[in-house]
Structure formats: structure tokens, C-alpha cells
Design goal:
alpha+beta, 16% strand, 1 helix, single chain, Regulatory_FmdB_Zinc_ribbon, 3-stranded antiparallel β-sheet, 93 residues, 26% helix, FmdB family zinc ribbon protein
Length: 93
């Protein structure tokens, strides 16, 4: 069950309450009877181990193509087409 932090708007009393998701929100301060508000803090989750960092998913080599895959395939098909006609012409001359 989750723990919720509450603070009184009038007296400033702060406390934690363990409540189910289906339980209604507390509205009355136990100290002075004033109105309460829920406090939201940072989540206590840490990611430890491999696979959570940018460098963990990279392979040992740092050769990453700088151009998108669409440009790379277009340039390689053009270069292979230009290589084919020049090779027979060079061997025929």
C-alpha cells in the first residue's frame, strides 16, 4: 500500500499516512482540525545495473553512421552503379 504525505494548511503539521488506492483522501488535520493538502515529492526509484545508461547499449566500436539509413543506401547504390560501367571500360582499353 502506498504512503502519502500530508501537510496542514493552517498549522503546518506534516505527517505520512499509509492508505489503499481506494481509501478517500484525508481532509482534516489531526492536530488542529484544519484543512489538509497532499504533498508530492520525488519518486524513490533508482536504476542500477546494465542497460539503463546510454553507454550500456552501445557496442565496443564507436563507428556509428552519421547519415540516415535512407541516404546511405541511396549513395551506395549510386556508387555501385558507377563502379560497374567504369570497370569494364577500364579493362577494355
Amino acid at each position: 500500500m502506498p504512503t502519502y504525505a500530508y501537510a496542514c494548511k493552517q498549522c503546518g503539521h506534516r505527517f505520512d499516512a499509509v492508505q489503499s488506492f481506494s481509501d478517500p483522501t484525508l481532509t482534516v488535520c489531526p492536530e488542529c482540525g484544519g484543512a489538509l493538502r497532499k504533498e508530492y515529492g520525488s519518486i524513490g526509484v533508482t536504476f542500477n545495473g546494465s542497460g539503463f545508461y546510454r553507454t550500456d547499449s552501445r557496442s565496443g566500436s564507436s563507428s556509428v553512421p552519421a547519415t540516415p539509413s535512407g541516404d546511405k543506401s541511396g549513395s551506395s547504390s549510386t556508387s555501385s552503379a558507377s563502379d560497374s560501367p567504369s570497370t569494364p571500360a577500364a579493362s577494355g582499353a
